[in-house]
Amino acid sequence: MLLFEKSLVWFRRDLRSFDHAALHHALTLSRQVYCAFIFDRSILDELPKYDRRVEFIHASLLELDTALRELGGGLIVRHADAAQAIPQLAAELGVDAVFCNHDYEPQAIARDAAVGTALKKAGRELRTYKDQVIFEKDEVLSLAGKPFSVFTPYKNAWLKKLQTELAPAELPAYEVEALSAHFAPLPPATPAIPTLSELGFEKTNLSELHIPTGMQGGQDLLDDFAERMRNYDSTRDFPAVKGPSYLSVHLRFGTVSIRALVRRALDAIRIGAGGSGAAVWLSELVWRDFYFMILYQHPHVRERAFKPDYDAIVWESGPHAEEIFQAWCDGRTGYPLVDAAMAQLNQTGYMHNRLRMVTASFLIKDLGIDWRWGERYFAEKLNDFDLAANNGGWQWASSSGCDAQPYFRIFNPLTQSEKFDPDGKFIRRYLPQLAKLSGEHIHAPWRVPTMELQMAGVTLGQNYPHPLLQHDEARARTLQRYAVVKKVTVEDERP
Ligand SMILES: Cc1cc2nc3c(=O)[nH]c(=O)nc-3n(C[C@H](O)[C@H](O)[C@H](O)COP(=O)(O)OP(=O)(O)OC[C@H]3O[C@@H](n4cnc5c(N)ncnc54)[C@H](O)[C@@H]3O)c2cc1C
Q1: Ligand 1, from 264, 290, 328, 384: best to mutate by most atoms within 8 Å of Cβ?
Q2: Quick one: three-class SS letters along the chain?
């Protein structure tokens, strides 16, 4: 049933022309549908001019525009403040409604509310849909009707809901192609998509890194991973091994559909082709939904600890803190696995999940730096930066989050290194100055006899730093620092 003569679909973190909830609904309900993307100045103006994410988006938009043109439409792209540009574009096009998909970040929620109000004032509608997650907001609740704060019961309820209630109804792809007769051709004289430099950005090393962009890039990665999915559980913790899917940046910008990914995992499990890996990978996709839900239900986590008593912790401060934080950012801690991981982040914008845990733990529980500093640095650097997952990861590492690791569990950077990069293959890749050290010695150069260091061409303090601290001493300081939490918790528990 057609409700609208003309509509506009506002693309944001859903840069694809298939299985797209807002696009599907707009095409179903409207005679003519325009499509737009706004390079939002309120976000972009804050970014440095070399930003792989902007380049990823830009490349993905060129592909999206081509795909939409093939379907009879095309993409209107503007560089403006989205909160104003969308109501303005809606007025220029004379549309009755704007369609978009839900975003769960507090700033985006506020922006969408402002757009909704402006559209309403002009007699237009804003229609929004769930698209980037399987279950959102309060769709998965405990038996008591409350949002979960522990992952395992959430996951069990999530799986149950998927299998019993929604599988047939919601997991199929949202049809787009069959509705393509409703695409409106681009208005005459629509300007070309601005170039990166017109947007104020420069080319990065994205293509040298062979990070595939757009829908085709996402599909290629998914096909490649499907071959490896069965081994995911046994390979995913080893950063030198091609274990995970590397799909996070595509999930971030919606060049893949979460429904397609979940279907792929479920199919592998159903036909027995997923080994023990598919179910574990599916769990990771559930973690993603979980953290979106946590951010939506508890938006305070953006600034504060999920568990309020953890805000009483006193972190290192002053020039020394700034110095050791900078050493961590630059990969100059003297702990090879930590430094190699930071080099991976700085050079590629990606960091392996195991290493995100190791580096976050090192910053918080070895260096005593406030988790928010690390969270901010990851937010600047990660191609797949996602407020919900990043905040969830950092609060997990600092023990302040929902279902976080206990405060007294402190990763030992040395044993993590020996266990998960046993031959030092990953370390060698990012710290070539240590490449000649043996697999046994590469994890802790400060313990290596001088003679051997010399033979490997390593001079501590010159081409590789002395360790910033000794883990055992740092561990003792951290337990003291976290004693404030223990005290509060015990006091809280008094009747
Ligand atoms: C401190 C810290 C910060 C993090 N910051 C981010 C971030 O900004 N953006 C981000 O997408 N992930 C983040 N993660 C989660 C995880 O490290 C990445 O999703 C994963 O490494 C991406 O690689 P992949 O696509 O190959 O993952 P795979 O192992 O193939 O997993 C598939 C997908 O599942 C999701 N996923 C996996 N693990 C998690 C998790 N723990 N929490 C939420 N979703 C998960 C991701 O969407 C991922 O792409 C963070 C983890 C930690 C410990």
Answers
A1: 384
A2: CCCEEEEEEEECCCCCCCCCHHHHHHHHHEEEEEEEEEEEHHHHCCCCCCCHHHHHHHHHHHHHHHHHHHCCCCEEEEEECHHHHHHHHHHHHCCCEEEEECCCCHHHHHHHHHHHHHHHHCCCEEEEECCCCCCCCCCCECCCCCECCCHHHHHHHHHHHHHHHHHHHHCCCCCCHHHHHHECCCCCCCCCCCCCCCCCCCCCCCCCCCCCCHHHHHHHHHHHHHHHHHHHHHHCCCCCCCCCCCCHHHHHHCCCCHHHHHHHHHHHHHCCCCCCHHHHHHHHHHHHHHHHHHHHHCHHHHCCCCCHHHHHCCCCCHHHHHHHHHHHHHCCCCCHHHHHHHHHHHHHCCCCHHHHHHHHHHHHHHCCCCHHHHHHHHHHHCCCCCHHHHHHHHHHHCCCCCCCCCCCCCCCHHHHHHHHCCCCHHHHHHCHHHCCCCCCCCCCHHHCCHHHHHHCCCCECCCECCCCCCHHHHHHHHHHHCHHHHHHHHHHHCC
